[in-house]
Amino acid sequence: ATVPAGVLALLLGTLLWAPWQALHGAPLAELSGDQDFQLFLHKNLEFTRKIKGDVAALQRVVCDTFQLCKEEELLLVRQDLGIVQVPLEQCHSRTFQAEACFSQIRDGLRAYHGSLAAVLELLPGHASLVETLQLDAANLSSNIQQQVEDLGLATVTYPPEGRGPLPAFSSRFHHQVGSFFILANFQRFLETAYRALRHLARL
Predict the structure, then answer these.
(1) In 3-state terms, what secondary structure has residue 3?
(2) How far is CA 182 from the centre of its chain?
(3) SS3 of residue 155 by DSSP
(4) 75 Cβ partners below 8 Å, 6+ apart?
(5) Could you give the angle at the alpha carbon of 6 between the alpha carbons of 5 and 10, nearest 5°?
(6) Which of 66, 113, 138, 178 is most exposed, with minimal Cβ within 10 Å?
(7) Can you list the positions of beta strands (E) in the chain?
(8) Whether the Cβ atoms of residue 168 and residue 178 lie closer than 8 Å to each other
(9) For the whole prediction, is pTM greater than 0.85?
């Protein structure tokens, strides 16, 4: 399956601290030499980089427009919003399994696709960029699902862990802060996914 060069860029990036050395015994070794799998990984790494760049551009818009730039200054407000980080622990745990990591990336992309609706509503002047991000997230999720099927890996569907519809923001300020954290969490998610894919490409 071919993966659009822009879609993977979103997924991959904050695992510098992860215990990757523990992963070399993972059951992915037999796939590491597969040329199609390597092509998938490298295309999706590029795609994830592209998506990360688009998220960063929207973060700059939120910073410039609403002066919401530093996460540590907004943590108290965040507690009231009910916005949580989509889990990716299967991508950096010592019991790393490719199918579990891919499944969490896929499900997380779907969750952020929905969450970006709040950002779209807040930034109508940047609708084209937000809609591109939503499309890229959907495409990357589809690419990963297709690759999992092509490899014959078992698919795992993770429960949403209480993540339902977006919270009803009680004020314009809460909407702004909520969008700030959606983007910040998405960026972290993508960084983690990026590092996971990059690690697999080096096995």
Answers:
(1) coil
(2) 11
(3) coil
(4) none
(5) 125
(6) 138
(7) none
(8) no
(9) no
Exposure letters 63-89 (e unless 16+ CB within 10 A, then b)? eeebebeeeeebeebbeebebeebbbe
With beta carbons less than 8 A apart as the criterion, state whether 77 and 174 touch.
yes
Class for the domain spanning 31-79+88-156+166-201:
mainly alpha
Q: Which amino acid is at 31?
A: L
Q: Is-contact 88 108, C-beta < 8 A? A: yes
Task: List all residues 6 or more positions away from 22 whose beta carbon is below 8 Å from its beta carbon.
Answer: 94, 96
What the block records as the tokens of 16 is: 């510098």
Q: Which of 135, 106, 120, 147 has its CA nearest to residue 11?
A: 106
Contact 8, 42 (CB under 8 A): no
